[in-house]
Amino acid sequence: MGPDDSIGTQVETRKGSLPTREWVTRGSAPRILVAEDQVEMRTLLRRALKRRGYDVVEAPDGPGLINAIVDGLMEKETQVPDLIVTDVRMPGFSGMEVLARLRREGWTTPVILITAFGDAQLHDDAALLGASRVLNKPFAMEDLCDAVEALVPPRR
């Protein structure tokens, strides 16, 4: 996955699935959608990713994550996130439920799950659903940023 560098060009669309990013603007920062119900943690994630050159959209819970995705699809120029970072346990919908739904709908957007409850079963289930990475809390912010950069390098 990776956005095309040309202006207003439709990119990678698999038959029967939604593209991970329909329209891109030259020079725009990759968009990271962060869903975390703890305000302090969400703020730390946003600040760290913005310092690395990302455009960050925040969601406070599972329904907020869904709304942020829908809002991006409804924009004049579609703004689908290049990557999603989501907590596993959140009010409304869990990060796992959202990941499962995205994959059922054919989305290939990379997803990094973060959790304070990362047992072996959760890691196995996340891998089966196609999570790009699972980070157990507490984690070093550098580890998260490195994982994000490996999946979606910032434009410089």
From TrEMBL:
Pfam families: Response_reg. PROSITE patterns: RESPONSE_REGULATORY. One of its GO terms (biological process) is phosphorelay signal transduction system. InterPro entries: Bact_response_regulator, CheY-like_superfamily, Sig_transdc_resp-reg_receiver. Keywords: Phosphoprotein. It comes from the Bacteria. The modification 4-aspartylphosphate is found at D87. Residues 1-20 are annotated as: Disordered. Residues 31-152 form the Response regulatory domain. This is Response regulator. It comes from Pyxidicoccus fallax.
